[in-house]
Amino acid sequence: MLAVDGVSKRFGGLMAVDGATLALQPGGIVGLIGPNGAGKTTLFSMISGFVAPTDGRIRFEGTDITAEEPHRRAERGIGRTFQIVQPFAGLTVCENIAVGAYLRHAKRADATAKARDVARRVGLGSELDRPAGGLTVAGRKRLELARALATEPKLLLLDEVLAGLNPSEIRDIIPVIRGIRDEGVTILMIEHVMQAVMNLCERVYVLAQGRMIAEGPPAVVCADTRVIEAYLGHGAAARLKAEGAAHG
Amino acid sequence: MYSPQIILEAALNGLMTGAVYALIALGLTLIYGVLHIINFAHGALLTCAMFAVWIAWAWLGMDPYLAILPLVPVMFVLGYGLQRFVIGPASHGDDGNILLVTLGLSIVLENVLLAVFQSDTRTLDTDYSFQVVALGPLLLSYPRLIGLGVAVVVTGLLWLVLNRTDTGKAIRAVAKEKLGANLVGIDVPHVYAVTFGLGCACLAVAAGLLMPTFYVNPRIGGAFVLVAFTVVVLGGMGSLPGALLGGLFIGVVESLCGLFLGDSLGQIGIFLIFIAVLLVRPTGLFGAKA
Amino acid sequence: MTARDLIPIAVLTVLAALLPLVVTSSPVLNFLVFMLIVALGAQGWNILGGFGGQFSFGHAAFFGTGAYVTAILQLRYGVNAWAGLVLAVAAGAAVGWVIGFLSFRSGLRGSYFALVTLAFAEVFRILANAASFTGGAAGLLIKLDVRAANLQFDDRAVFYWLVLAFVVAVLLLTRWIQRSRFGAQLVAVRENEDAAKALGVNSLTVKLRAIALSGGVTALSGCLYAQYFLYIDANIAYGSWISVELLLAPIIGGVGTVFGPVVGALTLHGLGEVAKQFAGRIPGIDLIVFGGVLVLAVAFARGGILGLLERLSDRGRGMVTRGPKEISHAGR
Asked: Can you give the residue range of the structural domain that contains B155?
């Protein structure tokens, strides 16, 4: 469904992303992890069309979309949430979500109905007529999710949707994400919260310093030496193993 | 067509007019560079300064160049007060609001001047208003030549203040990183007000240089403000050398356009450049922030 | 559209329509017509500035285009005044589209956009002042030939009702925009352009549509001005005074609301007249009041008069309250 092929992004002298390759089949949840500054959000920005790659191609459902504008990609079915959540101030929750719904429904009544429906699925049913600015952080994350969902995406890019949530809020939102997957939406999520990654993702890609260094099921990847070293530094894997053996 | 001598003369005269444009733009770019606001009241403040110079001449018989000396601190205080007590508080720190507040201020200032002075155009005469200096075969206006020299000197002085004094360091710190500057104890509203005051002080000098060869009426500021914006945008918002070079360039363009296109169309070159720069490279030639 | 929302519009329309029957003095009628023309132009500004969040400081470019197009078409090509009106609106929309295309394509927003619109208006003014087919510095005088076909009427009240009709029509148009997909997308682009794009909104198209609409409506007001006062020149048509009038009214009234521009125009001009009554010997006293009110509005009532009313009455719904809470806008 999504084929990211040797994509690179250079900012002046800095190689933010270096020859990243990624392939997604329809259905399921795939994770994109890596230490801070690895280039994950830059990669997302390239997939969603906000940043143009310096090199490489991006294909969605067989079509090359590398040069397409963000709104065209949304029309194709690529939805995206942003790391720093910004609701449309001055509008209610329902109106916020309706902006997304208007992509597929031209009439106000249809878009509003769709918005209410999505809100309920995501757990914001009781907040629909509140001003969006009055939501808690957890509420805003759900709103971000709802807005993207309202565009009826086939592929949903979640950028650290769990950041800033406390453990109980995380626990509450995980079933929502699973529910989205169960409805047939493919999900690619950037996450730092490992508990969620282990819980939700069938497969995981690891990006470090702009390069893909590992790929596979989460349990396997997290035990991979290179991945541990990317997070904890050179020689960390060996040290951890030694300490493990010492403790018996 | 025109002889090379006439063209050269026009260009040089333009250069000298441009020097005054540069002075006006200096204040504007400084204010933008530090406060990140586009001061729409700049033109009206210039008009105030020019009227002040005129009054000093008409009522006190003071030479305009001499009038600059007391006017600089007066304008500084005015600018400081405006930023500290009107613009800053009214805009709640929001850029869009500041745009509107300075616009409102300019409307009030311009019309108060209109009420006090009526719409008549006023000029002043000095012995040297029409003096010329011969440079080879070329005749250059003496007061304008002085303007060029003073503009360069003031730019240099301003640069010195910004780079060699503590206040200047504080200003640059606030320009780069307001929150950080605040955290290390710099009084940000005070620095903002000082910057605004400095910008207005530049206007005092510009007014003194303009009056011998120019005229003043309440509406004159409006014309200058657009030219000043063009200079600032061309030279780069926040760049002092950009304002100086941009001003000189615009002065030459205006002069040559006036020569070839006639007076009524002369100014059009400036605005076309303005639009072109905004569309192609809004950060200007030397600007850092957009 | 629910009936409840339309009631205020209907009531006010009826009241306003009855006014000329009570007021017969010429200067007062002139004042009322002028005020309505400004309100109409301000409604145009509000579409781009209020709903779109792009503050234009050069709406004179559209006002003047509407005025000149209708004047030139009548004077030099003998085009009928009503046809001239239609063409003036089309011209305004076209100019809006071009300015929008150049500016938005280059990513101009916020203060930079304000500056470039100012520059465009100035360019138009200089050109109109210099070119002969716009009458140069002498301006254009539309021939006085009182016939309905010429959009000139014996009774000033007829023109008043005509302008009133247009104002009401644009009120309805604005309300429709507010409740449409286009309006929702426009507001989304205003609040957060990137988020809107990620949701499938073609922000460039939306902004272009907004500026074309805005230009067309304001051009209409310029055309009506020319038709009523029968004389225009470069400073009247493209001068900064009209750019300021057209932005002051919506900001004072309530930017981004349906009624804001009309309320603002009424308030400002009302205040101006009051000021002139008390201090009439001071020239420009009304403008001083305008500038002062602007600063006060920004300082204390950023949602304008309607925003103040909403805060006071604590009601959250209804078409009068749909604007952004602040005059500020995202981006720079």
From this structure: 23-218
* Environment class of B59 (CB within 10 Å of its CB; exposed 0-12, middle 13-18, buried 19+): exposed
For the cut 70, the answer to whether the pLDDT of residue B78 exceeds it is yes
Query: What whole-number distance in Å separates Cα of residue C252 and Cα of residue A248?
Result: 75
Q: Which pair of structure tokens corresponds to residue B218?
A: 């309440």
State the residue for tokens 């009455």: C313
Q: Quick check: A98 and C184 CB within 8 A?
A: yes
Decide yes or no: CATH 3.90.70 for domain C7-16+23-321.
no
The position carrying tokens 């957890």 is A138
| Domain total in chain B | 1
Upper half-sphere CA count for residue A53 (Cβ side, 13 Å): 28
DSSP assignment, residue B122?
B
Cβ count within 10 A of residue C306: 25
Check whether B98 has a pLDDT greater than 80: yes
Q: Nearest by CB to C118, which of B89, B105, B226?
A: B226
Query: What is the spatial distance between Cα A143 and Cα A210, in angstroms, rounded to a whole number?
Result: 30
Query: Considering the domain boundaries, does residue B73 fall inside one?
Result: yes
| C84 part of contact set with chain A, CB < 8 Å | no
Shortest Cα–Cα distance, A153 to chain C (Å): 10
pTM of the full predicted structure?
A: 0.88
Q: How far apart are CA A213 and CA A215, in angstroms?
A: 7
Q: How far is CA B217 from CA B49, C152, C237, in A?
A: 12, 38, 22
The per-residue pLDDT for C328 is: 39
Is residue B97 a part of any domain in this protein? Answer: yes
Mutation to test the A interface, candidates C199, C202, C325, most A Cβ within 10 Å: C199
Rounded CA-CA distance C237/C247 in Å is 16
Look at residue A115 in the predicted model and tell me its pLDDT: 93
C125 in Cβ contact with C64 (< 8 Å): yes
Q: Which token pair is B19?
A: 């020097």
CA-closest candidate to residue B252, choices B20, B96, B85? B20
What is the mean predicted confidence (pLDDT) over C118-140?
87
Question: The tokens of A89 are what?
Answer: 């101030």
For C30-61, write each residue's pLDDT tens digit.
889 999 999 999 999 999 999 999 999 999 99
b/e map B141-176, b = 16+ CB within 10 Å: bbbbbbbbebbeebbeebeeebeeeeebebbbbbbe
For A101-132, the DSSP string reads HTTT--SHHHHHHHHHHHHHHHT-GGGTTSBG
Q: Is the pLDDT of residue B96 over 80?
A: no
Which residues neighbour A78 within 8 Å (Cβ) at sequence distance 6 or greater? Answer: A47, A48, A49, A60, A153, A154, A155, A157
Whether B249 is covered by a domain: the verdict is: no
Q: Do C111 and B38 touch (CB under 8 A)?
A: yes
Among chain A residues, the shortest Cα distance to C327 is held by A90
Between these two residues, C177 and B147, which has the higher pLDDT value? C177
In a domain, B163, yes or no: yes
So what's the ipTM on this one? 0.88
Could you say which of A48, A89, A95 has the minimum Cβ distance to residue C198?
Answer: A48
> What's the pLDDT tens digit per position in C75-88?
888 888 899 999 99
Q: What is the distance between the alpha carbons of residues C262 and B195, in angstroms, rounded to a whole number? A: 39
User: Does A91 contact C at CB distance below 8 Å?
Assistant: yes
| CA A89 distance to own-chain centroid | 23
The answer to whether the beta carbons of residues C249 and C259 sit under 8 Å apart is no
Residue from B211, B250, B222, B181 nearest B55 by CA: B211
